[in-house]
Protein: Competence/damage-inducible protein A
Amino acid sequence: MTAQDTVTAAMLAIGDELLSGRTRDKNIGHAAHMLTLSGIDLKEVRIVPDEEAEIAAAVNALRSRYTYVLTSGGIGPTHDDITADAVSAAFGLPCIHDAKALELLAAMYERRGMEFTETRKRMARMPQGAEHIPNPVSTAPGFRIGNVYVMAGVPQVFEAMLDHVLPTLAHGRKMLSVAVTSPYGEGEIGLRLAAIQKAHPETSIGSYPRFGGNGVFTTELIVRARDETALEAAAADVRAMIEAIRQEKEASPA
Amino acid sequence: MTAQDTVTAAMLAIGDELLSGRTRDKNIGHAAHMLTLSGIDLKEVRIVPDEEAEIAAAVNALRSRYTYVLTSGGIGPTHDDITADAVSAAFGLPCIHDAKALELLAAMYERRGMEFTETRKRMARMPQGAEHIPNPVSTAPGFRIGNVYVMAGVPQVFEAMLDHVLPTLAHGRKMLSVAVTSPYGEGEIGLRLAAIQKAHPETSIGSYPRFGGNGVFTTELIVRARDETALEAAAADVRAMIEAIRQEKEASPA
Structure:
């Protein structure tokens, strides 16, 4: 939990249903928002199918590049839930029935008067040596191994697990941002905006066109910086640019 | 447009705003749905930031593995719109102002009585030799180079471009699917479902837990196959499994 300048993360969403279009992913957008709030830069997202080799290859590609990797999906009890196997394979560790997870699950099914079937026991599987990520919603834990955090795909459970994980992560210096709405399209502001970006290299200025439907584009400009003075200086230049364009248009209407 | 058994695709969504959580992506889910309808298997999705090296590396990783690569985002006129540069770099081609695109854009701005600025001319940039993807919404074209289809990030424009592209792609034999809702959670059906999957290797049975909020999970089961007879046989077994569980529960209530 030191405040380094940059802490990075990648997210890996796992599941055929996301790739077939049956399910629209909700976890990526949520994680992106929460990581940004935490001062962690989400640098890459991948969605892969329920195939062990694909999941393991993505885990290995991402864990070597980024401070943290968050995964969602594939930790339920059925035959297509193979994330525990794939992550174990990626780390070269045996995938075992974790004793503490078996206990938690056994107690929960006991309380509910339900049989603790072989299928349900699959939810206790994780790489040997993994640490639990608690699941306050439905008991079956996620797990952490190395810098990889394996969480559920059901959004209520994913969000609860992420809430638990975030305070345990190192966080970077928080990225600050200011939004400025330009009534002018990107084509009218682009050159001047590029000059402003060049003059403020310690900021990152994003430009996002919005199509109004009446044939007119407006632009949402987002200035980002970790330093507040740098942020305000760049934002002031952006506002001045918009005011200058307004005055020019008044002086010589199209 | 031959009907091969399997045609694959990957999608690459480009943009800092997707990774910061400011914008929730709408194009991935739409593309997944439309590709599935077209009999094309979406096998992988990546989201990368507005960084040329990252975009180029992802384009190269994906175009060598899949039949098609669709990209969204980063083809507007501003300094952070660098998809044309990155895709050109990936193919080792010069990024040029395409003559036909310049003509289209010049005519559009002429009609609208607007100046065709240097900034706006950036929207005509693409790798030398690329083919246009028409943009009926706001003129600035996307482009195809090799098996990579570069489209806009604004959803209305992305969708219009994709509508144009899809009929030009080879399509696989369409994947058929049947949905069966199980009132029982994955823990109760998992073992039997795994046996059904094993007995029907030419199908793919997905199992998706839904959390009802009252502490009860139900399960959405999706049986998929390219062959209708195989599909129906597996789906019949799934329905019989649910009926068998129901009868067992009636016989010995918990």
